[in-house]
Specification:
The structure holds 2 protein chains of 2 kinds. By secondary structure, chain A is mainly α. Chain A has a two-stranded antiparallel ribbon. Chain A has a domain of about 180 residues: MetI-like (MetI-like fold, Orthogonal Bundle), CATH 1.10.3720. Chain A has 14 helices and 2 strands; from the N terminus they run H-E-E-H-H-H-H-H-H-H-H-H-H-H-H-H. By secondary structure, chain B is mainly α. Chain B folds into 2 domains: about 60 residues; about 170 residues, Orthogonal Bundle (MetI-like fold), CATH 1.10.3720.10. Helix content of chain B is about 75%, strand content about 0%. Chain B is built from 14 helices and no strands. The chains are: A mainly alpha, B mainly alpha. Chains A and B meet through helix 1, helix 3, helix 4, helix 5 and helix 6 of A and helix 2, helix 3, helix 5, helix 6 and helix 7 of B.
Chain lengths: ~325, ~300
């Protein structure tokens, strides 16, 4: 379909350019007006910085003047030996695995309960369950800093009521527990998002298919296992994708709650980058961290989309 | 005795129906129990924050989930924040950032989406692919490179240094959502408009945009949320406390009054209330934006 249309109304004045040339010029002006400003901002503030950081990562650079001290791949070699950095990648993988094993199944179960059906009041439950997602990360972090307060926080007080001889847990101060505590907060904040996606997926399943299964003698578990879940495949694959990417991007929550501590036990790649790259003015080193973060994201995204989400594409585009 | 014995021995069918009903009722009850427990767990942290804001720090620390005691409602927690010029200044900065991100984001993404969905031109596929490349890079991942770029352009300590990168990072997602909606609007309408002498831009402005209002609203809503909540980029770009938006303002407050939990929770409450109101009114757009318009009712 072409956007150039034959004009029905006759022209009043003779044209200096012939009609088709003029129309083509008009069309290109329109396209330039529509595309150029947006793409310019996109190139200047997204694409260019990403490629520049690849260049900066080869220098030792404190951020003042132009980078001159060329170091080749030294920054990357330093990173490969850096225990805190390797730890931060491991933490991201821990958060990722826990999200896939705990957060997504929880979101799916809740979506099955409130996403459809005739349960009275499901809309109210749905609305409340989604609320944490709309709080900003700063608000979430501040609320949970208090909830996880070792002496008087809601968490320890509540556990004290239900568990006999309960000893208060220093959630964010104990290197073995802090990451789990962070994961708890992440789950609280983000499961609602996945729940909404699952509910959308559930609603796109034709009811007749499940009904047919029931008539053929499936019980509810079998309907769920053999009809509903397979039909939600594309949604589930999408949430896994978003959840994995999300695990590598945590900054604000972690930074406010623990600043990556205690003893770097909750450091993520982003907090590592901020603490050791930006706060210490090691922008070359920090750029190397950023490049590794890009590559992780890029390799995973492209690999996952090619191999796992490929089947969903003809449906989506 | 007899009344009781007769149905049991003579009508097994009724008994079976009864059992099924009990089972069903049991499962409904179970669903409710699970839902109520989960909802309470989700609800409790937010409720504690609000309860903390209306009491004294002492009461708050003694009993995180209690109502105001003898000391009564602590309105002065709120008064203290609402009477400080820092708060209003942060509010103004947040409003400016949010408005900038939303207006520019919606304008540029609808222009791009229109070109990609409704026009034919050489290089369209390439340009679109370059743009979709941006979907792979969330803002957090690229903060350091953006910071360097913003500094080179001299936009440190300027709200534009926060707004423009956020617009750039919002574009790919918004364009993908809008393109879907624009493509769905029938071609016949476009043909009719051109026959009536409408220009391409006229069709875009006066026919397509009004028709795609729900999609525009969805994109705008998501932009408002991301602009209002942004912390990391603002932390890097804005060094002058006078330019800090609310997420940085509340952290500054927390830094100054670290043990004043009641004050901090009052601040949190002040920020939660508009977020909740916004959510109530835009819920449907948020859901449309997140799910690409698939979820109804």
């Amino acid at each position: 379909m072409s956007a150039i249309r034959f004009r029905v109304l006759p022209r009043a004045f003779p044209q200096s350019l012939n009609e088709s040339q003029k129309r083509s010029r008009e069309k290109w002006l329109t396209i330039a007006f529509l595309v150029a400003p947006g793409m310019a901002i996109f190139l200047i503030f997204l694409l260019l910085p990403i490629f520049q950081s690849g260049y900066y990562s080869l220098f030792k650079w404190n951020g003042f003047g132009f980078p001159k001290d060329f170091r080749g791949i030294d920054n990357y070699l330093d990173l490969a030996k850096d225990k805190v950095f390797l730890g931060s990648i491991a933490h991201s993988f821990t958060i990722m695995s826990l999200s896939l094993l705990v957060q997504l199944p929880l979101a799916l179960a809740l979506a099955l309960l409130v996403g459809r059906g005739s349960l009275p009041g499901r809309q109210i439950f749905r609305a409340i369950l989604f609320v944490p997602y709309i709080f900003s990360e700063v608000i979430t972090a501040l609320i949970w800093l208090y909830v996880l307060h070792p002496n008087s926080g809601l968490m320890n007080k509540t556990l004290g009521v239900f568990v006999q001889d309960f000893k208060p847990i220093t959630w964010l101060g104990d290197r073995n527990i802090a990451l789990i505590a962070i994961f708890m907060v992440l789950t609280w904040k983000f499961f609602g998002f996945h729940m909404i996606l699952y509910m959308a997926g559930l609603q796109s399943i034709p009811k007749d298919l499940e009904e047919a299964g029931r008539i053929d003698g499936c019980n509810e578990m079998q309907v769920l296992r053999f009809i509903t879940l397979p039909l939600m495949g594309s949604t589930i694959r999408l949430t896994i994708f978003l959840s994995v990417l999300g695990s590598f991007q945590q900054f604000t929550l972690v930074w406010i709650m623990t600043q990556g501590g205690p003893v770097d036990s909750t450091a993520t790649i982003a907090t590592f980058l901020f603490k050791y790259g930006i706060q210490r003015f090691a922008l070359g080193f920090g750029s190397a961290v950023a490049v590794i973060l890009f590559l992780l994201t890029l390799v995973f995204s492209i690999g996952y989309q090619r191999m796992v989400m490929r089947q969903d594409y003809e449906l989506r585009v | 005795m007899i009344d009781y014995a007769i149905p049991v021995t003579t009508t097994p069918t009724r008994n079976r129906f009864q059992r099924i009903n009990y089972r069903k009722a049991f499962f409904v009850a179970l669903k409710y129990v699970v839902l109520v427990v989960v909802t309470l767990i989700i609800f409790a942290p937010g409720a504690t924050a609000v309860l903390g804001g209306i009491r004294t720090t002492g009461e708050f620390l003694a009993d995180p989930f209690g109502l105001p005691g003898e000391a009564g409602f602590q309105w002065q927690n709120f008064e203290r924040i609402l009477s400080s010029p820092d708060f209003w200044n942060s509010l103004k900065n947040s409003a400016l950032i949010t408005a900038g991100v939303t207006i520019l984001g919606v304008f540029f993404s609808s222009c791009l989406a229109f070109a990609f969905s409704r026009m034919q031109f050489v290089g369209k596929g390439t340009v679109f692919n370059i743009l979709s490349f941006g979907l792979l890079f969330p803002l957090v991942v690229a903060t350091l490179p953006i910071f360097i770029q913003v500094r080179q352009l001299g936009l440190i300590n300027s709200l534009w240094g926060v707004i423009l990168p956020m617009v750039a990072f919002g574009l790919p997602g918004s364009v993908v959502i809008l393109r879907g909606f624009f493509t769905a609007i029938p071609t016949e309408l476009e043909d009719a408009a051109y026959i009536d002498g409408c220009s391409t831009l006229g069709f875009f402005r006066f026919i397509l945009l009004p028709m795609a209002r729900p999609a525009i609203a969805a994109v705008a809503t998501l932009q408002v949320i991301s602009g209002w909540n942004e912390y990391f980029l603002a932390l890097l770009v804005l060094n002058d406390p006078k330019l800090w938006p609310l997420p940085l303002g509340i952290m500054q407050f927390q830094g100054q009054f670290g043990t004043d939990w009641a004050g901090i929770m009052a601040y949190v409450t002040i920020l939660i209330i508009p977020a909740l109101l916004f959510y109530v009114f835009t819920q449907r757009f948020i859901v449309t934006g997140l799910t690409g318009g698939e979820l109804k009712g």
